[in-house]
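Troubleshooting: if your tokenizer reports a length mismatch, compare your output against this known-good record of 59 residues.
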Amino acid sequence: MKPIFSENPTAVNVLSIAGIISGVHMFLIVGFLGFIFIIPPAIIFLLSLIDISNHKAQQ
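Known-good structure output:
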């Protein structure tokens, strides 16, 4: 069994590209899930703050 990578640089390139793509994929998925879980509570919090300030302005 000869080592594949020393004689075949394209295999190394393909593996590195696949690793980069999978890493970017994981980053995007985690970022998307974080976006879903973080943004709605932040929006609700901002709306409640605006609502409280409006009530204070009306009184």
